[in-house]
Please model this.
Amino acid sequence: MVLRALYWIPLFGWLLRDAVYGDTLSRIFFVVNLLVLWALAVVIFGYAAVIIPALLLTPTFLAIIVAFTLNK
Model:
């Protein structure tokens, strides 16, 4: 349901739909487009565009590490 809502975003939805239903090359282009978008954010916003995703991923990786260590 969330994925269908993301399809309605004008440019991103078209790229996402092509990545989901397309071939391998479409998925590669989707990832390249996301990396270019992130690079443009770094150029426009500076260091904050690098540090904010890293800070947001910290709890995720901590939860992954805890989940792996609890399964012993």
User: Anything to note?
Assistant: The chain has a mean pLDDT of 89. The helical segments are 2-6, 10-21, 24-45, 48-70.
